[in-house]
Design brief:
The chain has 425 residues and is mainly α. The chain contains 20 helices and no strands.
């Protein structure tokens, strides 16, 4: 009904004009006042026809000589229309400033928190993170990746300055007594080593070897050692036991007393070496460089990095198999903790909103022309018929009211003019 409203109003105006023209012409209506009514229908017909032409000319070509070139306006001016729409959308409706202003009114942080608190959304988020982690893990043993990591580590090991930080750290640790626990562990390990049967047998064999070598140095020494063994003057087992006892006694003293001469002497040597490292002593630096070079050579020749990466891949893949593994539970627990902390931290929410707004605004500024390009591309894809149909489909009903208003307003104006003329005459 609405689509035909303009045509119905024009038809009513025209029929009214015809009826009153006939009635007046054949003197059925003789009073001069009826001319005012006829004038109203006449003006309404003219207004309706004029607005029909205007609306029709927007969308279609009207085959009237000389006038035809001013019809089908949308099709003939579609390039201007397209650029006008692009300009309006890009620089007015969806300008970077307008979008940024609207974004600043949106509490994105709260929306993110609400999303992550929803069990289904959280499950999807964890699943998404899991898929990314699996994809990354699957590439860990890639030969090219392993080679890249190996080269990076090797270059870093060779180029990094380890001497200065090691020197500073060692000197500080010794001065602060942080190494005392290491001393205790070292002494305990030494105690265990010297008190086992293998150590005792080794000392016995070395003493026996030393006595034999001493006896080979001359007749007198050989005779002396022979008599000492026969008379019991030398008891290798007793000597070994005494040596072990005194060594244990020395170790206990050193373990219980941080100021023991042995520990102080060794600490002094360590500090001196650390200071040499810090001051760039050539010999001290040579020790560190030698360690670095051996480590780099080991990484290059022993297939260490590929082996480590394969182990990491297998471990990570296994940990990502389901949500019950240690890694996945760690991920879920920390995700919940982060969400809970974020919900309480209003300052952090403000920062997140600011960061999101600034990031999107930056992207909008950089790619803002793409909005216009999308609108332009969409309009270009339409042929003339589709373009007219889409526009007419959206505004057609409103244009029918324009035609109706043209007929009504024209009729009223016609009545007013005829009435004034009637009163003057």
């Amino acid at each position: 009904m609405k689509n035909n409203l303009g045509s119905i109003s024009l038809l009513i105006a025209f029929i009214g004009l015809v009826i009153f023209e006939i009635l007046i012409h054949f003197h059925i209506l003789t009073h001069s006042g009826w001319n005012i009514v006829k004038a109203g229908f006449e003006a309404a017909t003219i207004g309706g026809v004029a607005d029909w032409f205007a609306v029709r000319a927007l969308f279609h070509e009207i085959p009237i000589p000389f006038i035809k070139k001013h019809t089908n306006i949308i099709v003939k001016n579609r390039e201007k229309l397209t650029e006008g729409i692009v300009d309006l959308v890009t620089n007015k409706w969806l300008s970077a400033e307008v979008i940024t202003e609207k974004l600043s009114e949106v509490d994105m942080a709260s929306a993110i928190i609400e999303f992550l608190q929803n069990p289904n959304s959280q499950k999807k988020t964890v699943g998404f993170i899991r898929e990314i982690a699996l994809k990354l893990a699957s590439e860990l043993d890639n030969p090219d990746f392993a080679l890249t990591i190996q080269k990076m580590l090797t270059n870093q090991i060779k180029e990094i300055d380890l001497a200065t930080p090691i020197g500073n750290w060692v000197e500080k640790a010794v001065n602060n007594g942080d190494h005392n626990k290491l001393w205790e562990l070292l002494i305990e390990a030494t105690e265990k080593s010297i008190n086992n049967a293998e150590t005792k047998d080794l000392i016995l064999s070395k003493l026996e070897e030393a006595i034999n070598e001493y006896g080979e140095q001359g007749f007198i020494k050989k005779t002396t050692m022979f008599l000492a063994k026969k008379t019991g003057g030398i008891n290798i087992n007793s000597i070994t036991a005494e040596l072990l006892y005194k060594t244990n006694e020395l170790l206990v003293e050193a373990k219980e007393n941080p100021q023991h001469p042995i520990r102080i002497k060794f600490d002094t040597w360590i500090i001196e070496f650390a200071q040499k490292l810090t001051n760039g002593d050539e010999n001290a630096l040579g020790v560190i460089d030698n360690i670095k070079n051996k480590l780099a050579a080991y990484l290059e020749t022993e297939n260490t990095i590929p082996h480590l990466l394969r182990n990491w891949k297998n471990t990570i893949t296994a940990q990502l198999e389901n949500e019950d593994t240690t890694l996945m539970q760690f991920l879920i627990t920390n995700l919940n903790r982060v969400v809970a902390d974020l919900q309480k931290d209003k300052e952090a929410q403000i920062k997140i909103n600011k960061w999101i707004t600034e990031s999107i605004s930056g992207l909008l500024t950089k790619f803002h022309n793409e909005i216009g390009n999308m609108v332009r591309s969409s309009l270009i894809k339409l042929d003339n018929k589709e373009l007219v149909e889409q526009i007419e489909g959206k505004v057609g009903n409103d244009l029918q009211y324009i035609r109706l208003n043209g007929a009504v307003v024209g009729g009223l104006v016609g009545i007013m003019i005829a009435a004034v003329k009637y009163l003057i005459n």
